[in-house]
Amino acid sequence: MTFATIDADRPLRGVVAGAGFIGGHWAPELLAHPGTELVGWVDVAEERARAAARELGLDDLPVSSSLTAVLDGEEPDFLVNCTVPQAHHEVTVTALRRGVSVLSEKPMAVTLEQARSMVRAADDARRLFAVNQNRRFMPGLVAFRRTVAELGPLGLMTSEFFMPYRGPAFLDTLEHPLVQDMAIHLFDAARAVSGADPVSVYCESFQAPWTWYPGACSAAAIFEMTGGLRYTFTGSWSAPGRPTSWTGNWRAAGARGTACWDGDGDPTADAAKGHVVRPHKQEPDPYPGRNRYTGLAEGLEEFVTGLRTGRPPQGECHDNIRSVAMVTAALESVRTGARVPIVV
C-alpha cells in the first residue's frame, strides 16, 4: 500500500470527530504530541464539543456539528474518528475523499462491505487510514508477543475473557454484544501475538441463564489461522465471579514450549525438553506521570511517523480489515451454525 506523506516543516493539523468518552482522551494526545496540533472538534451535538474544548482551555477552538464545515474550513492533515461505530464509515470516507488521512477508533466498520469500501476510499485518495487497536501497545501484551516469538511454530493459542460487565445502554440493542463490541480486541491481539491471519471460524454465541443482557453475551469460537495454528476464544460479559483481566487470560503452545499471560503481569514460559524459552518482561511506561488512556499516545506516534515517512503503522487499514473479518465471519457462523471461511 502507498499513501501520500507530508514534508511540510510544521506540526500536523488534526481534527477530532466525536466528543464522547474516547474523544475526550484523544484531544489531549494531540495537544501533548510535539508534532501535532488540534485545529477543530466535531460532534453531532455541537455544544458537547464546545464544552469538551472548554474543559481543556480551548475556548477559541473551532467546533461544529458539521464535519464538512470543519474539514473545509480548517484544512486538517488528519482526522481522529472517535464517533460511534455506526458512523465510522460515513465519517472516514468523507474525510478521505477530501484528502484527509484518518486514524480511527475500533472497529473500522460494522460490516465487512463497509470496511472494504473504506479501504478503497483510502487507496483512491492515496491517504493513510489506520485503526488504533490500543491493546497492541500494552506493555504486557508486547512482552507476551515477544515471549511467544521464542516458541517456534505455533500449534494452539487460547484466550479467555470473563467479565461481569454492565456497560452503556447501546449494548442492550445488540444481538451479540460480546462478539460485536468486545471480541475484536482479543481477535486482533491474537493476530498481533501469533503473526498469523484467519482462515476460517466456527462460533457459537448464546445467553447464559443468569445474564442481564437482552442479547447473547457469551461466546465460544475456534479459528483456523495461517500456518495451521488453531486459536480458540471463550468469553462472557455476564461472568458470575472470578473475572479475568480486561485483556483476558492467554496461553500459547509451540514447538519449543508454552507461554502464558494473565493479562496483567509479566508472561511466564516453560520450555520443551532440549529447548530454552526466555519470558520477556514488560518495559516501563514511555510516558510516565501522565494521566492517559493506554495505547493512544503510542498509536498517534506511529500514525504521525507514517504520515512523515510512508512507513505503515500497526492497524493500517489493509491489515486491520483482517481483524474486522474475524468478527463478521464469527457472526456469520453464529447465524448459519457452520464453519465459515474468512475472505477479505
Automatic annotation (TrEMBL):
* Record Pfam families: GFO_IDH_MocA, GFO_IDH_MocA_C3
Locate the Gfo/Idh/MocA-like oxidoreductase N-terminal domain: which residues?
13-132
Q: Boundaries of each GFO/IDH/MocA-like oxidoreductase domain copy?
A: 175-258
InterPro entries xref list: Gfo/Idh/MocA-like_OxRdtase_N, Gfo/Idh/MocA_Oxidoreductases, GFO_IDH_MocA-like_dom, NAD(P)-bd_dom_sf
Question: What is the protein name for this chain?
Answer: Putative dehydrogenase
The organism's taxonomic lineage, starting at the top: Bacteria, Bacillati, Actinomycetota, Actinomycetes, Streptosporangiales
Report residue spans for region: Disordered. 270-289
**PANTHER family this protein is in?**
BILIVERDIN REDUCTASE A (PTHR43377)
Q: Name one GO molecular function term.
A: nucleotide binding
